[in-house]
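In this supplementary section we document a worked example of the pipeline. Step one takes a protein sequence of length 315 as its only input; no multiple sequence alignment statistics are reported here. Step two produces a three-dimensional model, which step three serialises into structure tokens for compact storage. The input and output of this example are shown verbatim.
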Amino acid sequence: MTTLDAVDRALIHALHLDGRAPFTKIGDVLGVSTQTVTRRYRRLRAEASLRVVGLPDPQRAGQAEWMVRLTAAPHTAQDLARSLARRADTAWIKLMSGGTEICVNVQMPAASDHALLLRDIPRTASITAVSAHQLLHRYLGGPTAWLGRANALDAAQIAALTPVHDGPGKPLTGDDAALLAELQRDGRTALADLAAATGWSAATVARRLADLQAGGTVFFDLEIDPEALGVTTQALLWMAVAPAQLDGVARTLATHEELALVAATTGPANLVALALCPDAAALHHYLTHRLGALEAIRTLETAPVLRTVKAAASR
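The serialised model returned by step three reads:
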């Protein structure tokens, strides 16, 4: 397991705030050299799977977002998960609960034909059960990412590294496809390389990125092996909450450092969360003490995550 020191954690927090911040700026704010930042970044990429990815915000990009739970035969579940990971419309995939359940986050245009949900999945013979839940509202996750990786910098450093985006922003168009594809592979791709991929000038790429970020249509997320940050236990939490209390409970959960996702969803469980904990005992403590204190949560299903097959974007 990669051991992180104070500089590593500060660099991770800095990239959490601004995934495209120049290493010179990060070094100045952290009080270390540009060479140190560069060297640490390369080591974290190699040893902790650190990666910056540029992603569209589904709620601002006109996309519908679903959580699909699949149950498959034990000998086929992993192959099915890997097959789903190759699809462009799957954002992340987790193997759950003894290796027979797969949870897939699906993002598609709101006006699409929903081919994955209506045609492709039902045709897969190895699937024994399917349930699909549309995410109605994200309270945590996506642009507002897991707080557990954002705890190394002080207020002045956070202010210095937090980008300010001026202007009303612009929506995505079909012309942005090549730009998004490059940013999903590596959110830190240089402007010159983005220009070569899109056929635009570097100045045009810079303006387009600024427009998309200003409106929140595109954001930069940070992927890293959770174990490097002390997380060995993950679980999806499916909760049923009285509708009148759903918003208040969700806003409370969005402040919990144990959670990386909180979203209102359709289905018998109307609230879903992803918990990241140091170990099983910490998860138990979180469930019984912090969640247990919220009387509005009427039912709770805990589904342990065995493996993340696909993260925020295809590698």
